[in-house]
Amino acid sequence: MHPYISLGRPLTSLMIGLAVFTSAFIEAGWDVGNYSLPVFLGFSIAFLFGIAGNAINDYLDRENDKINHPERPLPSGRLKPRQALWFSLFFFAVSLLLSLYLSTLVGYGALLVVVTALIFQVAYEKRFKHKKIIGNIIIGSQTALAFMFGGIVVGRIEITGIIAIAVFLSIVGREIVKDIEDVKGDKDRTTLPMKIGIRKAGIVAAVLIIMAVLVSPLPYYPLGRFGWEYLFVVMIADILFIGSIPVIFQNAKLARQRLKFAMLISIFAFIIGSIFGT
Q1: Using CA atoms, how far apart are residues 99 and 93, in angstroms rounded to an integer?
Q2: Same domain for 76 and 52
């Protein structure tokens, strides 16, 4: 694989773009075709931003990667650090320029989201990567912003705002569960389980998951945007979310896997709601 392709990890970046497209479709439904240019720009911005973020991650982690990921372009010597830095800056600049153009079409909320995401990215990489308590919040915020961005590009954030809240809560909860899973190996990081103990951290994760579940019915009632089809599928996701809570205290790895699957089902529920919604 070409070192620049490996550096940008395009498949991972594609998932960010698909999150933006999916949230745009969820908000606009079959009318999403009427927003083809803004949606295309939103997808492209997210995709390119993801490439830039992956590159800056490798640039800043190049010393650790000599041990953890020696096959990557920088520790393997296939690219020089300066090349990776310029590669990252180029794609950050392109995504910012495209977001500026997108803002002329849909308003400056689009630019605000991208600038905020950039600030979060730099803050996480430079300062909070090893302070996992704040890092968890940043990761949840970044993911929520991707879904908000999809709503912004079609000019509607009613449903995507709810998704963003639910995603933020569930992602932060899952990250805490992951920290519980990794507590023995996280000697150089400040995680919530290390600060308050595994049981209390599990309780915090459980509360966040329950809050995400409580948000999920809102598109059905009181908003009335989605019908019973959405409610049926999201209830399956909610059962999986709630069912994962006792597992947190027994097998954190299994709980994390179940939470990830529940998140996928919940996103599918929003898609179903958009297809059959009012």
Answers
A1: 10
A2: yes
Amino acid letter for position 224? G
What pLDDT score does 165 carry?
Answer: 96
Rounded distance between C-alpha atoms, residue 214 and residue 234, angstroms: 11
Q: Which of 122, 155, 188 is the last residue of a domain?
A: 155
* Cβ–Cβ under 8 Å, residues 169 and 241: no
Q: 194-216 pLDDT, tens per residue?
A: 889 999 999 999 999 999 999 99
- Encode pLDDT of 8-58 as tens digits: 999 989 999 999 999 999 999 989 999 999 999 999 999 999 999 999 989
The domain of 229 spans: 157-278
CA distance 168 to 141: 6
User: Are the CB atoms for 150 and 21 separated by under 8 Å?
Assistant: yes
**Residues 164, 133: one domain?**
no
- Of the residues 127, 155, 183, the one at which a domain ends: 155
Rounded to whole angstroms, the Cα distance separating 79 from 178 reads: 32
The alpha carbons of the chain give a radius of gyration, in whole angstroms, of 19
CATH of the domain at 251: 1.20.120
Phi, psi of 227 (to 5 degrees): -95, -165
In this structure, the answer to whether residues 11 and 108 fall within a common structural domain is yes
Burial of residue 130 (number of CB atoms within 10 Å: 0-12, 13-18, 19+):
exposed
State which amino acid sits at residue 66.
Answer: K
- pLDDT for 174 beyond 80: yes
Domain match, 11 and 87 both: yes
CB 100 within 8 A of CB 28: no
